[in-house]
């Protein structure tokens, strides 16, 4: 089977790689000629461990190719995956502009039966819209099926997740489409759930919203742990041993970021509102997340008096390790509030870079942890990169001007840090 993947961002590139690994011939299509040119040479335009090597392998073997030629790509491939972006509109709803453009192009260019599958995270009911957009754009009424097949990849772990899925969700009323998709994935040993497109679309939002709920739940408990001298890391391990709860997504910190959880939680709340349902639990999840970064800056302000003219180091910019993605990164919110209060900032991240925005112009970007910590009055740990996890804090005591450590990812042991002479504050693990 020959497959076309439209959109070569993080989801599209990973999806194309997976199908090439599974032995199918895959074409990646994008409107961005520069991106396609780079991908054709095996160069990835974002940081995702292990992905570039696999893409390069499949380009060399002829299993995978990249193009900007829409007409040819749509006509040569019978199974088409839509992997374009669905950014948030100002009201929090998903912007389906790119999905619509692609659906209309498929409708205009198709030359026979096509199975059109959506990987992008789209609101419930989008599959029906896609089918109507394709139909309306068709000059000749060729048959087609539209299906939903949401992805569950984590950035930074996309290769691992994509090659070891824990489930495959196929949303389609068509037996032909379901069988084609099952055949595509036949080498994977995991449950395959065939359901309606609406249910498949809902499963994706419900999964992300549930994981976000776990994070806000533990983050809010962490605030109480601080008051009660209880260690939230031990609480998370203790409750996580119950298989009904599970240990994952219970790391307290400065909140969740990225291109998925914030966007998907608010889109689901909005969908509910449009249907006169209040998702009060998720509204709280969002509120807790929006205040989690200031929980740590408040602690720092209490200690330092004011941030004005204090030299403060920020270690970690990416919204999580193993990615250069800074979308909705909690570090940015911390940086902005410190800059608003006229702190002097130094920043270290091994991969991610600040946006080219004038508001960050005064931040001194450092190539090494030690450079960022030089003469600092305080440090915020914002991302759990290995280079930040493994800092030799006994050495850094001489490097910093004052030993104030605000640990936004609960990386360090409070007793050890205090024994080294630091003033140490984390999110619920200060004992
Ligand atoms: C998330 C989901 O985990 C994927 O299953 C999903 O496919 C993806 O969204 C998507 O919809 O495309 P991702 O956003 O890449 O993946 O990253 P996560 O590993 O889920 O982390 C999200 C945020 O939560 C990060 O800021 C991370 O630091 C934070 N987090 C995660 C915590 O604060 N505590 C935790 O215990 C876990």
Q: Tell me the fraction of residues in β-strands, as a range.
A: 5-15%
Bound ligand species: uridine-5'-diphosphate-glucuronic acid
Count of helix runs: 17
Number of strands: 14
Structural class comes to alpha/beta
Task: Output the keywords.
single chain, 431 residues, alpha/beta, Rossmann fold, 2 domains, six-stranded parallel β-sheet, 14 strands, 45% helix, elongated, binds uridine-5'-diphosphate-glucuronic acid
Verbal overview:
The chain is α/β, with parallel strands linked by helices. It has two domains: 2-195, NAD(P)-binding Rossmann-like Domain (Rossmann fold, 3-Layer(aba) Sandwich); 211-425, Rossmann fold (3-Layer(aba) Sandwich), CATH 3.40.50. Helix content is 45%, strand content 14%. It contains 17 helices and 14 strands. The strands form three sheets. The chain has a six-stranded parallel β-sheet, sandwiched between helices. A six-stranded parallel β-sheet has the order 11-10-9-12-13-14. β1, α1 (10-21) and β2 form a beta-alpha-beta unit. The longest helix is centred in the middle third of the chain and has 32 residues, at 197-228. It is elongated. The N and C termini lie far apart (58 Å). The mean pLDDT is 96. Uridine-5'-diphosphate-glucuronic acid is lined by residues 121, 151-155, 208, 211, 215, 249-251, 253, 256-258, 260-261, 319-320.
